[in-house]
Design a protein that fits this description.
Its cofactor is Mg(2+); Mn(2+). This protein is an alpha+beta fold. It is built from 13 helices and 21 strands.
């Protein structure tokens, strides 16, 4: 099977590694890819949102399956364009991708389907949003309504912090069009977990779960990021709890989407808060998470490719999804300045040494090769250093041994990924 994988981050590196293991794979193209994916397939210099060029390339190369990595091309209509061109695409339509493209759309779906979620309001002007925050008090959550690459959520502990977030998003233009409208919601309290499932129409098949660590600093301090590390499986959220969460929070959404004439097919990633009243939905994403995929996929023992091909054909694969019993810990190494303006250009050393360690996989994200062939920092989240172990403690020790083997000036990472699971 000839496959075009779309994306350039650590998630796509992990997907490429997983797809490369499939006996059904005959050719793998990654657009645009990164230096890490180049070892697993052929990188193609096409941007993730250049939908016409992606479709033209897939037709030219007689691609059998397009696999979208990030959310942006799906919201931009990649699956719809593939359908018009007669190409199979393992992702939802642009209409169904609004589950991630619009926070208020998701909230409306939850309300219609009776899905537990935080009480909320949507605002298109800053003044009434600020009035609402002053009336509600803090803690309170301010979310950009549109796509913001994981940086559009502020969990405000004070009213002043919430007001500043509203002003930054709505009048300061900090997040561009994504923040022109905002959703303000009650602050849920509990443990956050990420649940993944293959979905087609009104049915869903459990993939698995992971726990992300969103904030930049140890002890869950500082601003939210796209994710600074992940653990799989999460403590206290096993297969039975995951299936129950699918029944409560995912399958009713699928029925409501089908009722509206915009059925969802693809990978759903439900961000959940495990509150003292039970699981509550934080958000839906319409693809694998990042860095959750880097923690989850190395544990996968079944073949991902037939499952994705089945999704593209609007059905669920009947082959069971299986994982090893090992634990996985993923630590993100970021550039100094992230999640603000990251420092770029430093030369990265030691990835080969880290990959040589038992159980360790280093997935590249914000990297590129310079004219001299050196691997350099090119983004905020630079590497995802992941490790498998028989226990969380073993996986954690291996992951941090991998981190210590890698260096560049200004590298930052959290030192407590996996501590909660211990």
């Amino acid at each position: 099977m000839r496959v075009l994988l779309v994306g350039s981050g650590g998630r796509e590196h992990a997907l490429a590694q997983t797809l490369a293991r499939s006996p059904d794979l005959s050719a793998l193209f990654i657009a645009p890819g990164n230096p890490g994916t180049a070892a697993l397939g052929i990188n193609v210099p096409i941007g993730v949102q250049d939908v016409p060029a992606l479709v033209a390339f897939a037709k030219e190369q007689q691609v059998d399956l397009v696999v979208p990595g990030p959310e942006a091309p799906l919201v931009a209509g990649l699956a719809d364009a593939c359908a018009r061109a007669g190409l199979a695409c393992a992702g939802p339509s642009a209409a169904a991708a609004q589950l991630e493209g619009s926070k208020s759309f998701t909230k409306e779906i939850c309300d219609a389907a009776g899905i537990p979620t935080a009480a909320w309001e949507r605002f298109t002007e800053a003044a009434p949003a600020i009035d609402y925050v002053r009336a509600k008090g803090a803690p309170i959550v301010v979310k950009a309504d549109g796509l913001a690459a994981g940086k559009g959520v502020v969990v405000a502990t004070t009213v002043a912090q919430a007001e500043a977030a509203i002003t930054d998003m709505m009048t300061g233009g900090a997040l561009g069009d994504a923040g022109r409208s905002v959703v303000i919601e009650d602050c849920l309290v509990g443990e956050e977990v990420s649940l993944f499932a293959f979905c087609a129409g009104e049915t869903a098949t459990l993939i698995g779960a992971a726990q992300d660590h969103k904030r930049i600093g140890d002890g869950d301090t500082g601003p939210n990021t796209g994710g600074m590390g992940a653990v799989s499986p999460p403590k206290g959220f096993g297969p039975a709890e995951q299936e129950a969460a699918l029944d409560l929070l995912v399958r009713p959404m699928l029925r409501e989407m089908a009722r509206r004439g915009t059925p969802f097919r693809g990978v759903i990633f439900a961000g959940l808060m495990l509150t003292d009243k039970g699981p509550s939905l934080i958000e839906y994403n319409v693809r694998f998470g990042d860095p959750e995929a880097e923690a989850l996929l190395p544990r996968l023992t079944s073949d991902l490719l037939p499952a994705l091909k089945a999704l593209a054909e609007d059905r669920l694969d009947t082959t069971p999804i299986t994982f090893s019993d090992q634990a996985s810990v993923c630590v993100v190494m970021a550039a100094r300045g992230y999640p603000g303006e990251p420092e770029k250009g430093a030369v990265i050393h030691g990835i080969d040494n880290a990959n040589a360690l038992e159980g360790v996989h280093v997935f590249q994200a914000g990297t590129r090769q310079d004219m001299a062939g050196e691997l350099i920092v090119a983004g905020g989240r630079v590497l995802a250093v992941c490790a498998l172990g028989q226990t969380v403690a073993e996986a954690q020790a291996r992951a941090y041994a991998g981190v210590k083997a890698i260096s560049w000036p200004g590298a930052v990472w959290r030192t407590d990924i996996g501590d909660k699971a211990l």
